[in-house]
Design goal:
Layout: E1 12-18, E2 21-26, E3 33-37, E4 45-50, E5 56-62, E6 65-70, E7 77-81, E8 89-94, E9 100-106, E10 109-114, E11 121-125, E12 133-138, E13 145-151, E14 154-159, E15 163-168, E16 176-182, E17 187-193, E18 196-201
Antiparallel strand pairs: 1-2, 2-3, 3-4, 5-6, 6-7, 7-8, 9-10, 10-11, 11-12, 13-14, 14-15, 15-16, 17-18
């Protein structure tokens, strides 16, 4: 049943929900991240938007910070202080040498799928959100990273050569590439559930 919608000025590439607030990665320069109050799902209310130095491609929230992957190849990761959802503030950006197509956060580390052929998997240490540090990078058999998910001590990424690549991330500072598996087209989204990977592929 359709309930309602909110206008954030352009289409949203990704959303993250926390505490009745929807964080939208918006395909718009100067307003790449927007917050929407969804406490009443039938009437979403836009609260604020902030410039993240590029169009928002993907977003995840941890603590009082939103982490936004952007289409800016020099400032691919933006960190936004969202302790006040009505007053978002860009805290810092981090150069990941490419656009960040997808990201996921676990145990103080951010795992990014980056469109760089040498650093398709990039792991970022978030112990200090004001000063995130690249912990490690790995290539995806020289292909660009499209999507990423985690399952236990493993990361699974899709690349632009229609493959899923697995890594042992028990040590986030030194991921170990394990294997790859071909799929019938490029995987645009991926999730892990009970020992299975579910991949949304391009038509």
């Amino acid at each position: 049943e359709y309930l309602g919608s909110g206008n954030v000025g352009a289409h949203s590439n990704d959303v993250f929900h926390a505490n009745n607030i929807m964080y939208a990665a918006v395909d718009k320069m100067n307003e790449g991240l927007c917050t929407v109050d969804v406490s009443d799902p039938s009437t979403p209310v836009q609260l604020d938007c902030v410039d993240v130095d590029g169009k928002g491609l993907t977003v995840a929230v941890s603590g009082n910070y939103a982490y936004v992957g952007t289409n800016d190849s020099r400032n691919g990761l933006a960190v936004v202080d969202m302790s006040e959802p009505k007053n978002l503030e860009l805290e810092t950006t981090l150069d990941l040498d490419g656009e960040v197509n997808d990201l996921v956060i676990d145990a103080g580390y951010l795992y990014a799928a980056v469109d760089d052929r040498n650093k398709g998997l990039t792991v970022v240490d978030l112990s200090d959100p004001d000063d995130p540090i690249i912990a490690s990078t790995r290539h995806l058999y020289n292909d660009e990273g499209l999507a990423v998910t985690l399952g236990g001590n493993y990361a699974y990424l899709t690349n632009d050569d229609a493959e899923v690549v697995s890594f042992d991330i028990s040590n986030p500072n030194a991921p170990v590439r394990l294997a790859y598996e071909g799929i019938n087209n490029n995987g645009l989204a991926i999730t892990y559930k009970e020992s299975y990977l579910y991949v949304a592929v391009a038509s």
